Amino acid sequence: MLKRTLLFIAAFLLLTNPILQAHEGMWIPMLLKKYNIADMQRHGFKLTAEDIYSVNKASMKDAVMIFGGGCTGELISDRGLIITNHHCGYSSIQSHSSLEHDYLTDGFWAMSDKEELPNDGLTVTFLVRMDDVTEQVLKGVTDAMSEDARNKLIEAHITQIKEDAAKGNHYQIKVKPFFYGNQYFMFVENVFKDIRLVGAPPSAIGKFGGDTDNWMWPRHTGDFSLFRIYADKNNQPAEYSEDNVPYKPIKHFPVSLKGVKKGDFTLVFGYPGRTEEYLTSYAVDMIQNKINPERIKVRQNIIDIMSADMEKDPAVRIKYASKYARVSNYWKKWIGENNGLKRLNAVAKKQETEKQLTEWIGDSKDRIAKYGYLLPEYKKIYAKYTPYKLAEEYFYEAIWRMESVKLSSKLAGLLRKGDKFTNKDIESLKKYADKFFKNYNRTTDIKIFKNLVKLYYENAGKDFQPEIFNFLKPFEHFDIDEETAFNLFADVYFAKTFYLDQTKFNDFIEKYSYGSATSDKIQNTPGYNFFYDFVNVYYTKILVNTDKYTNQINKLNRLYMRALMQADTSKVFYPDANFTLRVAYGNVDTYEPKDGVEYDYFTTLKGVIEKDNPDIYDYKVPARLKELYEKKDYGRYGENGKMHVCFIASNHTTGGNSGSPVINADGELIGVNFDRNWEGTMSDIMYDPDMCRNITLDIRYALFLIDKFAGDTRLVDEMTIVE
Ligand code: ARG
Ligand code: ASP
């Protein structure tokens, strides 16, 4: 028996467990000492676990932050200077941009503190400390409990933990589940709210290669921007004020000019958002074969319309730059992800894991009782869940993404308040509308609307159609095709929804008072009815079901995860990313994208010049950069006469890791993480050590741009440079 178990474990490790191979994993900072530091040092790291995470002394964690809502940033001076990605600062840079001051196109460089630009709503968040609170959270919780009872009890415990931790301080407290609720950690966070834009290269550098090169290696993007944290006189977080001063951190990263060689140790410290490494074959099959293809299709439509309009009109390009980037990013990612999953035979690999787990379960009566039903149950539930999940995706990707729907939902929110609305509600709606219309192009919205409505109608499933689509019925009698009918519908929709016109919107909102006249006016618009009917479908037909099944799946996942861990106690599992601070480590490395081709680990400015093409928007190299290239004027930032631009390594990263510090064996900053390679985009579901690489901006390129290209030398002077 023992022999069989051992054999099984060995097979399990070999076949299904790439985790023990180098570099997969996003590790919990406070557990490095226990699980990872020895291995990290074997890979070349020269410092200790406390140098990365400590509650007793200044450590790297004090220099790493959540930037905004979904990126990472890090401190690079003792005056609160932050470096993150250009694409992370993008919406801030865009919000300061107009045709007159086009910082997106021309770049922006504050030559003194005074010129740094405040950003309403932008925050950065530091981790003060984290604690394992599993015991408190799961106190009194048993497997026999219903999911509802379990969730209620857990919620109550979490509320209590948060309350206790928040006493007597200004910190923000979060408690998050790990390993599908088998473990819980608390995060005590310090949030800064006065964050100013300091510098950004032109998009022709910061977004060089645009969406054409996005998710690709070899890459030549100078993807960085600079911000600064301001604090009050006592160095504490404060709302924006002219009196605020640059924040004095206890730790910032020294910046290394030494560069990297193949094989060098690298560490990425940041906030990976979401991975799903432990999914079953049923889930992977659904994502790969049912969900991703539809998501890709919907977004393809949006992208085609937006890009045609942006191509025609520079004003539209500015308005839609940020929206376009958001839509196209995951469109492309999902295409790459599906390619990778297919190449890896991910579903078959998962089935193999499941087969082995089933054998392990079969070895004991106790296991059979606890886990025996899991896999058959998954199979049943996924079959039922898939159509609802698909409808939900359609709702989010097609309907919720429409600009007019967003505005309607804001007005619906106001209506819902009845006569209890306040001046503040009106003010915030006005503010929302200002931003909305600043970036709104009616004709683009109309085209997208026509397209997406039809796509939803044809693909979301007949059980999920809103009442408003009944207008199609009469057309059937007259033998008018769907396309024409939807076009007519859209024309009426836009003509009669008065608030989609900025002047009319402002006019209406100025005079808003609750009462039949104003509320009727909104309720009589097709825009509002459309929104209302869809929300109705969503809540009564979609969400009730997706909620029901995800609840059931959550429970299965929790037990399945536990079984996986019990089946292999010799292995250290890492929890899926959940936008908490993690450490990934690996080495600078090349890879072979296909037979006979090896990609080098770094790119240089020569490649930027090679791609230069004044006819293609994504590849127009600024004249000043060409000049510096001609003169080879790289100063101390060059290496053997070359300007290094990006490099790749085998760190396991995902969305949210953008802007993360990439750190060398000595704890110095060597780059800023910003992307992954095309062949590795499936790493959120299945990591492949041969193919998965994270893409890093070489910090020397950023310094060269700040110093030589922009001439903002004061910024380089405030950094701690290690030559
Ligand atoms: N792919 C990178 C990441 O997921 C960079 C995205 C930048 N956006 C873009 N559409 N090019 O965020
Ligand atoms: N580009 C991603 C981000 O913005 C990083 C990634 O997905 O690798 O976080």
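^ aspartic acid complex. The CA atoms of residues 215 and 678 lie 5 Å apart. Residues 383-568 form one domain.
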